[in-house]
Amino acid sequence: MRVSEKEKRERVKFNVRIGNHIRRKRSDENISVGELARICFMEKPNLIRIEKGRVGASIFVLNRIAEGLKISLEELFKGF
Fold it and tell me: Dihedrals φ, ψ of 32, to 5°?
């Protein structure tokens, strides 16, 4: 099935929004991107790409990020 241009734009917009939200949550906790990546067993460049909205993260990865921030997945999406 082919993805429409509208859906592509919506995905990009979502990725940017969730990435910015993760970055704010991380900054609020005074955790560096490198430290969060280490806690989440991720490569730092991959977390940077997620925070910049360049790639979408699976629910599994988002859950690991939430755990690394010591919040629930629900709390990660709160206010988003």
Answer: -75, 160
Question: Which pTM value belongs to this model?
Answer: 0.89
Tokens encoding 21:
């939200």
pLDDT by residue (tens digit) across 67-78? Answer: 999 999 999 988
In 10 A of CB 69, how many CB atoms? 19
- Domain interval for residue 16: 5-77
Residue 45 tokens read as 């460049």
Alpha carbon of residue 54 to chain centroid: 10
For the record, the structure tokens of 17 come out as 């929004």
**What CATH number corresponds to the domain at position 68?**
1.10.260.40
